[in-house]
Sequence to fold (511 residues):
Amino acid sequence: MTFDDLYDDLFAPLEDALKRVGSVMETAEIARILSVGNGVAEVAGFTDLHADELLIFSGGVMGIASNLSEDRAGVIVLGETERLRPGDPVRRTGRVVDVPVGTGLIGRVVDALGRPLDGGDPIEAEDLLPIEQPAPPIMHRAPVQVPLQTGIKAVDAAVPIGRGQRELILGDRQTGKTAIAVDTILNQRDSGVLSIYCAIGQRASAVARVIQSLREAGALDRTIVVVASGEDAPGLQFVAPYAATSMAEHFMAEGRDVLIVYDDLTRHARAYRELSLLLRRPPGREAYPGDIFYIHSRLLERATQLREEHGGGSLTALPVVETQAQNISAYIPTNLISITDGQIYLSPSLFEKGHLPAIDIGTSVSRVGGKVQLPAFRAVAGNLRLMYAQFEELETFARFGTQLDSETRRKLTRGLRVREVLKQHEHDHIDVPEQIAALLAATEGLFDELEPDGVVEAERTVRKAVCAQVPDICDRIAAGEELNDEDRKTLIEAMRGALSDAQTEAENGHA
Fold:
């Protein structure tokens, strides 16, 4: 063996390995921390820094460049600040905050940056999208016309929600706001709608209960849960809804229908107020910064129904906001009422009386209205709001003990039965044909002869009757066909016969 052969055998592999490794020089602009507090830091040393740019602190903690001046910058820290010290290095990334998107997120529980919280495998992202994106232009939007059924009679009949709509849910604490939002998610089992539940500033125990409800109902497999709990840094609470919306927009761009729940934006506003005050921004009304309206408007404007040529997907937003002492004219609630396309108001007084869900139909409104209701629903529930408002007015008047004529007594009797029909247990989802049957029976007076306590059982009877006796009409109602006079007459006869049979059985049982 020659020397050249020996050299090739011994040293050639080493030379190849050195070529593959090579020498890569990385350049990075590094600044230093001047001061660090609870959720924010002040850094100095950058010569070129962009607004909202992502920064990396020691230990991998990230931050967002917020307040920029000539010699220093205020940074919103997206993580714990206990380990950060003045003098520690800070590095630029040259990009904004982004989150993983794609089908790998479905069925997972993640934080505001898309990192898994459920102990599962790492997220397999199809792409990375910035958390802040411009809302679709007006020419890309289509009218909201397709209903998003919640399975809740009071909502679907009086304040219907359409795909692409922004419907606010507001009320005092512990009045059932989250229950309505979660029930809406659970009711999408057969609709093909993908759901995202974004918890902002909630207690970990409350979020765990929601996740358990989704898991028990089999809805977690079609839901993404984004969590920034009250124990997390205020920066994570602030970016959470934007991150969740970017995850939703990925599916909307693919032509899918997405429902997103922000629970709740009151805590989101408080987190932003905390950050703004720590960054020494000028406070305004209730110590909120001047751009508090803009942080919610730019978020909710991203919810829309796209035209077919732009994918045809939709993003429906259900923001939740908490009121105090029923004051819906407070700062944050009025801001959100003016941004959204209607509101569902939950009344503490109705909740205390046991009228669940405690939806105040007189105060609640959907600015899309009957356009998103199925034709049969419009035919039955078209005058429900007016009739119910008249009943409540008469009920208030009747408390004075005034002598009432027969017509007024009839309206009071029917209104009481309609109120009983609108009551509904949590997680009790009712299909559209059954909702229409129950409302038709109440408004046509089929329950007038019953005591209010017997309406629930009678309603269950008529719902079973229409499903069993006239399934063809139920199928046509669900398909979106009109409810003609003959169909209406057939439904009433079937329900009246079922009630008569049930009453006969009850009398024979007593005998």
